[in-house]
Amino acid sequence: MKKTKALLIVDMQNDFCPGGALAVPEGDKIVPIINKLITEFPVISASKDWHPPDSVHFQKWPVHCVADTTGADFHSELDTNSIDLVLLKGTFNKDNGYSAFEATNIDFVHWLHTRNVTDLFVCGLATDYCVKASCLDAVREGFHVFLIENAIRGVDLQSGDSEKAISDMYNAGVKIIDSEGIG
Q1: pTM of the model
Q2: How is the beta sheet containing 4-10 ordered, strand by strand?
Q3: pLDDT digits (tens, 9 = 90+) for 56-106
Q4: DSSP summary character for residue 101
Q5: Which long-range contacts link 64-68 to residues 24+ away (Cβ below 8 Å)?
Q6: Is residue 89 annotated as a catalytic residue, yes or no?
Q7: What is the pLDDT of residue 181?
Q8: What is the CATH number of domain 4-181?
């Protein structure tokens, strides 16, 4: 069986970029890095928050990434032509959907296994929430997980949240790398 590496782009959506409803500081600055990464992977998936307007998620967070809105669209500069699968998460009103592995439109683990994916490289937004949840779930599912540190940004509600998240991922077995080491 041929082993395959895959890229997971987490939530590169308008509402998480500057000017969006839940903007991650400098969230748009990683788009060029991600576009370059896309050329290095045979299998590419991308997650999207896809919330209903009455989501309980909005008890903690501002209304963002409501299904079928401009805010839920991918950032306009993200190269979406090579994305093989879009994972929709947080689609039910009682569903937070932080992890890409909580996608409701497909069994992501099965999809990866049918493509012989063993190594999952993760980038996107936000380090301290959806990126962290996706990485930790990927480790639990048995994948070798690589966090591309210069292709992520965090919310940092509390100072240091992103650094703590990276430490938590590292302690769970996630390898922390730079995009320049891929290829």
Answers
A1: 0.97
A2: 85-89, 43-49, 4-10, 117-125, 144-153, 175-177
A3: 999 999 999 999 999 999 999 999 999 999 999 999 988 889 999 999 999
A4: G
A5: 64/15, 64/16, 64/20, 64/21, 64/22, 65/11, 65/13, 65/15, 65/16, 65/21, 65/22, 65/90, 67/91
A6: yes
A7: 79
A8: 3.40.50.850
The dihedral region occupied by 23, where left means phi > 0, alpha psi between -120 and 50, and beta the remainder, is beta
Look up 11 and say whether it is catalytic. Answer: yes
| CA contacts within 13 A on the Cβ side of 180 | 1
Quote the pLDDT of residue 95: 80
> Domain ranges in the chain?
4-181
Where does the chain show beta strands of DSSP type E?
A: 4-10, 43-49, 85-89, 117-125, 144-153, 175-177
- The catalytic residue among 17, 123, 130, 135 is 130
Given a contact cutoff of 8 angstroms between Cβ atoms, the answer to whether 49 and 97 are in contact is: yes
pLDDT at 161 over 80: yes
- Give 115-128 pLDDT, tens digit per residue: 999 999 999 999 99
Query: Which member of 28, 65, 89, 132 is catalytic?
Result: 89
d(CA 152, CA 128): 10
Rounded percentage of the chain residues whose pLDDT exceeds 70 = 99
- Are 46 and 81 in contact by the 8 Å Cβ rule? The answer is no
